[in-house]
Write a structure and sequence with these properties.
about 50% helix; globular; six-stranded antiparallel beta sheet
């Protein structure tokens, strides 16, 4: 087995990186790795019964809600702006917010960000960016995918920001700005608050998925393992797992392991094991070793079940301000 080493490098943490940039603008240096954990996005699993894509995430913890959760856990108040209709224009409100500092916006459709050479038109891939200023109808931004100091016209920004093909957004033209610290927490207090929030995410998913056509948790993982064994994995599913979901899940699991390390050895070791399993599953998929891939997926399901069980077994902590 490989030595467990925290992963530091490229990871598809667009909302966490964007939030980290926002906080850095008010001299709060908080790593994207910590923010990613506190969003709760990488907990659990679910799979659509229509396109069969498997997400190692929780159906009740989308990234836009995750930004709120992370900022609140870290002790910040902030402005969250959104619009009821995609026919409204957010640009004047955005300019007003930019006069106070940078603004995180999203989800945007990555395929419509015309400064990105990989943009291919609307593809429905959700993304988050930081708008840093404007000059007339030109908006300047930092894109955490690796493109700083880019710009878009107002019309181009609106078209991407509509994110018409992104299904999970709570409302239209969402943004986060003006963070201000209102509380300081010790590491232990942050851990306890995060555990309460994580439990709530698992609990809320039970009610949420009852109204949707999805499988969750180990059942979702087992269903994909069966599709692998039966030779039913589509090219779309394969590409999604190989290029995105498995590598980002390995990075997330490594970050969760680090977050838990000082406070709960069992949670930390389970997440470390999952990180290695995600990496192994990606390699088996890359090498077209379907038997090994199916075995790794089933093992991931077992460890996920053990992780949720351990999380739920922790005694309730006293409520803290």
């Amino acid at each position: 087995m490989p030595t467990t080493v925290p992963y530091i490098g490229k990871a598809e943490y667009c909302y966490a990186n964007s939030t980290s940039m926002l906080l850095a603008s008010v001299d709060e240096e908080i790593s994207a790795r910590t923010i990613e954990v506190l969003t709760g996005v990488g907990l659990g699993a679910f799979a659509s019964t229509s396109n069969h894509n498997l997400y190692f995430s929780n159906f009740s913890a989308p990234p836009d809600l995750g930004i709120d959760r992370a900022l609140q856990l870290l002790g910040f108040e902030f402005e969250h702006r959104s619009f009821d209709s995609p026919d409204e224009s957010p640009l004047e409100s955005l300019k007003d917010d930019l006069r106070s500092g940078p603004v995180v916006i999203g989800p945007v459709d990555m395929g419509l960000l015309t400064y990105n050479p990989r943009a291919t038109g609307a593809i429905g891939a959700d993304h988050y960016i930081v708008v840093t200023g404007f000059d007339g109808d030109t908006f300047f931004l930092n894109d955490p995918v690796g493109i700083p100091y880019a710009w878009l016209s107002g019309d181009e920004l609106i078209e991407a920001w509509k994110a018409e093909l992104v299904g999970y957004k709570r409302s239209h033209f969402q943004s986060w700005s003006r963070p201000r610290r209102v509380a300081h927490h010790t590491e232990r207090e942050l851990f306890e608050s995060a555990i309460r929030m994580f439990k709530g995410i698992y609990d809320s998913s039970i009610e949420t998925v009852s109204h949707a056509e999805v499988l969750t948790g180990p059942d979702a993982i087992a269903a994909t393992a069966r599709r692998v064994t039966d030779g039913l994995l589509s090219e779309g599913e394969r590409g999604f797992l190989l290029d995105f979901m498995l590598p980002v899940s390995a990075a997330r699991a490594s970050d969760y392991a680090g977050f838990f390390a000082k406070h709960d050895e069992t949670l930390s070791s389970l997440k470390a094991e999952m990180a290695e399993l995600f990496g192994a599953a990606r390699m088996h998929l890359h090498l077209d070793d379907t038997d090994a891939l199916a075995t790794s997926l089933r093992h991931i399901g077992d460890v996920e079940a053990a992780f949720e069980s351990r999380l739920r077994s922790l005694s309730p902590f006293d409520q803290r301000d």
